[in-house]
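Lab notebook, bench 4. Continuing the backlog of folding jobs that were queued last week. Each job is logged with the same field layout so the records can be merged later without manual cleanup. Today's entry covers Trypsin-like serine protease, a 299-residue chain. Filled in by technician R.K.

JOB TYPE: sequence-to-structure
TARGET: Trypsin-like serine protease
LENGTH: 299
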Amino acid sequence: MVDSPDGPGVRRRDRPPLPFGGFRVSPTSLIRGVLSTLLLATAAIALPATAQAAPAPVPTGAQPIVGGGQASENYPFMASLQQQGRHGCGGSLISSQWVVTAAHCVTGRQGGVIPAQQLQLRIGSADHTQGTAAAVQRVVRHPYYTGDVSGGNDIALLQLRTQVRNQPVSIASGSPAEGTSTRLLGWGQTCPQQGCSQQPPRYLKQLDTRINPDRMCSSGFNPASELCVYGTPQATACYGDSGGPALIGSSGSWQLVGATSRAGRNSSTCGDGSATIYTDVTAHRQWISQSTGGAVARS
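JOB STATUS: finished
OUTPUT FIELD FOLLOWS
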């Protein structure tokens, strides 16, 4: 555990908690991608808009990165939330017409919800420029999200204009216990300091980690509706990772438990304090069911 300069377990109050992405950040932050670290890149086959992607070899010249690995399989539910073709956040397809992501990913500079027509999705490809292209019809931000990620409820739903054929991921029936193995997915910044990368990786990455004890997270962490996920500056979720999934299970039977929210402490270094905070998607099952009319994949 990396302690705050203020001492073990002390919450830093000199700056607000930092979300891991979204479209209200600076242009350079906007294009930072998902898993900070330290993974290998993987390629994907370009497919028509209604097709699903298949795993492909690492492109020539891809450099190994410490702490993780290339996406080892196809994740047909994995989504890239974009503006003007630029990746900004991750998301998870939970039905043929709904994607779950982080609330701060759909919050504009003035605190309002970004209009649906300004958002686009790419679903099911390891290459965030490929896969199923989907327009957003409606944005449903959690009604109790305040604009401060440490206030919780950092979750939103995107209704697609038309249904897609990709296989959605089911939401787990309950919150994972401490020590549960968890897989994180995303595109993104491959160094832990804010601003250290100007371009997002093009290919999907994965990182296997675990659920931390609740005490390892301190930035307004709410154990009733959030997950404390283990991470270090060498292997963690980071800027641009917001909204992307934390999964439990195994190949062919993945279940969604979390959506990336913020650092485990008020730090600009990803993984500082050995934790990342995820919104517990399982704790919001009732709200999701009500908002989607029950149209969600069930475990």
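OBSERVATION: The chain has a mean pLDDT of 78.
SIGNED: R.K.
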